[in-house]
Specification:
Elements lengths: L9 H21 L1 H6 L2 H12 L20 E2 L16 E3 L15 E8 L8 H13 L9 E8 L5 H10 L4 E6 L5 E6 L9 E8 L4
Parallel strand pairs: 3-4, 4-7
Antiparallel strand pairs: 1-2, 2-3, 5-6, 6-7
Helix pairs in contact: 1-3
């Protein structure tokens, strides 16, 4: 079993989720056309930019991110089997990092996907096959006990109900539970076959504005 890095404290994970929700609300105000019809990469780039903005006092505009380093986008990582070309969409790293042995392997790694059941490459199945599976296979966060799947939703799908049967049918799912809010759920996946620690994924599904 590969040695794992320490998990982020719960308060840091809550801060990340809150900051992402805030960033989403900013994007809906600033660039609704990109939210409505842009490509995944376009939305992710805009969100990345908003999350790294500073105010006039050199403080992070995104609430809760003052204790974090710059949010990375598309940074290459090493997989559990030694490949070096994989790149999760976003990585959050707190400035406080006691017990960490390699910063490249540590942080909250985030994979982004558009979800729209009417489009094949945006379907919930695609989300799992090309998102969740990357964590389960040890391609992302192979030395971390947690990660995040971030969805830009275009069809009003709710994460827990939508993912229930898909996660039950595969992806070495140990548990799948509803989240504290309707836009989230959590799943835990066994990765012992990859000699990796099990990973808990927060599925945060950002909904279109009413």
């Amino acid at each position: 079993m590969a040695a794992s890095e320490p998990d982020l404290a719960p308060e840091f994970k809550r801060a990340i989720a809150s900051a992402v929700r805030w960033g989403w609300s900013e994007l809906q105000r600033r660039c609704p056309d990109i939210i409505a019809s842009g490509r995944e990469e376009e939305i992710t780039e805009r969100l990345h930019s908003v999350l790294n903005e500073l105010d006039e006092e050199d403080r992070r505009c995104a609430p809760g991110l003052d204790l974090f380093e710059t949010v990375d986008r598309g940074a290459k990582v090493t997989t559990s089997d030694g490949r070096i070309e994989k790149a999760p969409d976003l990585v959050f790293r707190p400035s406080y990092r006691r017990g960490v042995r390699n910063l490249s392997d540590w942080g909250l790694f985030v994979e982004c996907k558009i979800v729209n059941a009417t489009v094949r490459h945006h379907s919930p199945s695609f989300y799992c096959e090309n998102g969740v599976a990357r964590f389960v296979k040890g391609e992302y966060a192979y030395r971390m006990p947690s990660g995040m799947m971030l969805a830009f939703v275009r069809d009003r799908s709710a994460p827990y109900v939508t993912l229930q049967e898909l996660l039950k049918a595969g992806y070495a799912t140990l548990r799948h539970t509803a989240g504290e809010a309707p836009d989230e759920c959590r799943s835990v996946h066994d990765r012992s076959a990859r000699s990796c620690v099990a990973v808990e994924l927060l599925h945060l599904w950002l909904q279109p504005q009413d």
